[in-house]
Specification:
The protein is of the alpha+beta class. It starts with a helix and ends with a helix.
């Protein structure tokens, strides 16, 4: 890869001052460790394999600026480096520094066309049912206490606890009967409450309750159990859904592992997973636009040097819990691009991102035109494709009145709030609807009632839905499909489908470095004149029969 020749020094050590001290013996250059991490993700290597590549590969040594005789570093250095980046709030530095350098070279800029999509990420945890979650959470807390305060723990439990909690939950044979599983679940609950009482008791060191495993036990027990104390008698039972049970927390708050308190269980259409969700934003300007074609795109290549197609570069990465909807991330994505001065003029997203409010907000606050298919009218008439749907009615917001296709004016115009959103309910009188000859095309009830949004939102929805039926709009939106190739490159080349690390901050760091690695791969193809694969073709389709003849 021609990183060093084309970009020079991307990661100066001064950028890492917040995470690395200046006193003591000089350590390994953090700039070199960052570049090594990017190269590591470009080939989906483990820490040990990356450390071996630094020692053995001449190309890696050249990219890092090391002497050929340099012995490299131990693999554990990379793990410590990532921890320092997270502690110093430098999780976005890998991509930020590269984009700044590319902006200076004219390879990336704001005002063009970009696209965003998301994909699911499996957490570095095992999926557990509620019984396994309770047992493993209590076992993990006991294990942490046995390491931190063995003498204290030996004084509050007996040998029977070793028989129940001495092995990981996946090594145990849990009861097969429902009654047996319920009994074991209650026992876990009682033992967990007993341990929490002892940890928070006057005889326990105060710092024990601050252990992460003990904090996880306390939080998970609040979600999984209900304890009732009456006249000195304690009743512990598993929480169940309302109305028959004691209630469970919403899915966005439910903890699913004692080892990763940020992971959540998410569902998107037919896919369910435990972990996170990542959003990638990349440029997608029209093919054939050369970076040297105008003053805005930097210097043209030297004579005799052939470049490839201008690469689509990732400009934004956002990692969230699995339960966060795509629509909640559109504004944060725009804010991230604004901070990098890379706001697009046109933003292509799928139907999971926009709403009428977000279309107006993006245009008014960021100056962005959202190009996305909005969900159409979901009324029975629209779904059937017959009858009078919402678009067949005329709405006069000034007169606060609507007119049906038969020319009948509405009788009521009622502003209200539905699902925490402003809305207007428009109704027609039953005296007009019942004898109407077109009633079968309009409603099956006694009268027609329609819910619309306030004027600005209504007009924005109507305009967007009209535009998305045109051939010109469909041609513009076709460019969004290319982001699926980026998702495949991220999951199959850098290996982000399954998280390497625990916790949201380190997973965010992983995805940022992976995005940087993808940019490096694409830049290398551009620098070496390798054309982009615009279409996917099979090996059979690539056969050259002229050679055979």
């Amino acid at each position: 890869m021609r990183i060093r020749d084309e970009l020079g020094e991307v990661y100066a050590d001064a950028r890492f001052a917040g995470a690395f001290g200046v006193r003591g013996r000089p350590g390994i250059s953090p700039g070199q460790l960052m570049m090594a991490s990017v190269l590591q993700f470009s080939e989906d290597l483990t820490d040990r394999q990356a450390a071996e590549a630094v020692r053995d590969r001449m190309t890696w040594k050249y990219a890092l600026g090391l002497e050929l005789e340099d012995p490299g570093f131990d693999a554990s250095v990379l793990s410590e480096f990532r921890s320092r980046l997270v502690a110093g709030d430098l999780t976005c530095l890998a991509l930020d520094a590269l984009l700044e350098r590319l902006a200076g070279l004219g390879l990336v800029r704001g005002g063009g066309r970009q696209r965003t999509d998301s994909t699911h990420v499996l957490g570095a945890i095992r999926m557990l049912n509620r019984l396994e979650l309770a047992g493993e959470t209590l076992r993990a807390a006991l294990e942490a206490l046995a390491v931190a305060a063995p003498d204290w723990l030996a004084g509050v439990i007996d040998e029977s606890w070793q028989q129940v909690y001495g092995a990981r939950i996946d090594d145990l044979h849990l009861p097969a009967s429902q009654a047996g599983r319920q009994e074991l679940m209650v026992r876990y609950g009682r033992d967990g409450y007993y341990l929490l009482e002892q940890v928070h008791g006057p005889g326990a060191p105060a710092w024990l309750r601050e252990l992460p495993a003990v904090q996880a036990l306390r939080r998970i027990w609040i979600q999984q159990y209900y304890r009732e104390v009456t006249d000195g008698r304690q009743e512990v039972r598993r929480r169940e859904k309302l109305p028959g049970g004691d209630g469970l927390p919403p899915g966005r708050d439910q903890l699913i592992s004692p080892y990763d308190l940020d992971a959540r269980y998410g569902i998107k259409r037919e896919t369910g997973w435990s972990g996170y969700k990542v959003h990638f934003t990349e440029t997608c300007d029209a093919p054939g636009t050369h970076p040297g074609a105008s003053p805005d795109t930097g210097p043209a290549p030297a004579a005799g040097l052939e470049r490839g197609d201008r690469p689509n570069l990732i400009t934004g990465v956002a990692t969230t819990e699995a339960t966060v909807p795509d629509s909640a991330m559109l504004t944060p994505v725009h804010q991230q691009l604004e901070e990098r001065q890379l706001l697009p003029g046109e933003h292509l997203v799928d139907s999971g991102y926009p709403s009428a409010e977000l279309i107006i907000h993006a245009a008014r606050v960021f100056g962005i035109t959202l190009v996305s298919p909005l969900r159409l009218d979901n009324s029975a008439q629209a779904r059937a494709g017959a009858g009078y749907d919402k678009a067949a009615f005329a709405f006069d917001f000034d007169a606060r009145q609507a007119t049906c296709p038969q020319g009948i004016a509405s009788s009521t115009w009622t502003p209200c709030r539905q699902r925490h959103e402003e809305a207007i309910v428009v109704s027609w009188p039953a005296t007009a609807c019942l004898p109407c000859p077109a009633r079968q095309l309009c409603t099956s009830g006694r009268r027609r009632q329609i819910t619309i949004r306030p004027r600005e939102l209504h007009e924005a929805l109507a305009s967007a839905r009209t535009q998305q039926t045109s051939a010109q709009w469909k041609a513009r939106y076709n460019a969004r499909a290319g982001v699926e190739g980026t998702m495949r490159q991220a999951t199959h080349v850098t290996g982000i489908r399954r998280a390497r690390y625990l916790g949201l901050p380190k997973t965010q760091l992983e995805h940022t470095i992976a995005a940087t690695a993808i940019n490096m791969i694409r830049l290398d193809a551009y620098w070496t004149g390798h054309p982009l694969d615009r279409t996917r073709t099979s090996h059979l389709a690539r056969l050259d029969f002229t050679l055979a003849t």
